[in-house]
Amino acid sequence: METATTPAMVTSLDSPNPSISSFNPNDFVVQFWGVRGSIPTPGKSTIRYGGNTSCLEMRVAGKRLIFDGGTGLRMLGDAMMAEMPIEAYMFFTHYHWDHIQGFPLFTPAFLPGNRFHIYGSIPPEGESMKKHFIERVLHPNSSVPLKGLQADLRFHELKAGDSMMLDDIKIETGQLNHPNTAMGYRITWNGRSVVYCSDTEHLPDGLDENVLNLSQDADVLIYDAMYTDEEYHSPKSPKVGWGHSTWQEAVKMAQAAGVKRVVIFHHDPTHSDDFLDQIEQEVQAVFPKAIMAREGLVVPIGV
């Protein structure tokens, strides 16, 4: 059986198997719908990697899991329209704009018959996940009337460090180092694990134990590598304290945790396709099984 460590297990929209739906629904597969950080970046210099903000989908043992709701969520919603009625599980790392922008234009949420289980943390002063999500996350930022939300939305609160089961799928969480906090996720099924850590900033004096523990021996680590080390420590415009990490730190974490494959994710808005191509060459020189996240990328994890 092939594993996520072999190049054949990585495909994209340009390859003969262009969609997550091409795979057996009982497998474990990841598809990227938005890979950009901070703000959408449409334009001719971002065509190959994409300009939509954070959103990825996992199909695991017949269940559909969605992580974050950036502008990539709109495209995922359009793809879902052929599969109605839909039941899916949505997990949010945090509620900065680039992780929620797509929800007000997520068409399946406005149609009756669909069901979405929405998971995330709430701040200490929050009353409930539902109240926080509807009244504080969506209402002040939505471009459409939220009274049109006709799907069955079920809200669930998680705290960093919690774990839960969806049938035989295990979902673990961990605290990330990010302004206003964020939460990472580890999804394990049938002996295979994928870790999603965005947004997070590495520590100045050693590896972040929260991320290290969450990532231990994972098949795939999807890591916030928004900057290069040079950008992060730039004398003119340092990014220290901004809540994001570098591809060099992604490699350090992957090596220390024994990760089989690392995915460089949450690309900076100023990074063009050509710049990301250069980063890909540099990161693969030190970690050959690293790959760059791009819209449409499909990573099968296994059966």
From TrEMBL:
Gene3D superfamilies referenced in this protein's UniProt entry, alphabetically: Ribonuclease Z/Hydroxyacylglutathione hydrolase-like
Domain Metallo-beta-lactamase, chain residue ranges per copy: 52-244
Listed SUPFAM superfamilies: Metallo-hydrolase/oxidoreductase (SSF56281)
Coiled-coil region: none
Origin: domain of life: Bacteria
InterPro entries: Metallo-B-lactamas (IPR001279), RibonucZ/Hydroxyglut_hydro (IPR036866)
Protein name: Metallo-beta-lactamase superfamily protein
Gene source species: Lyngbya aestuarii BL J
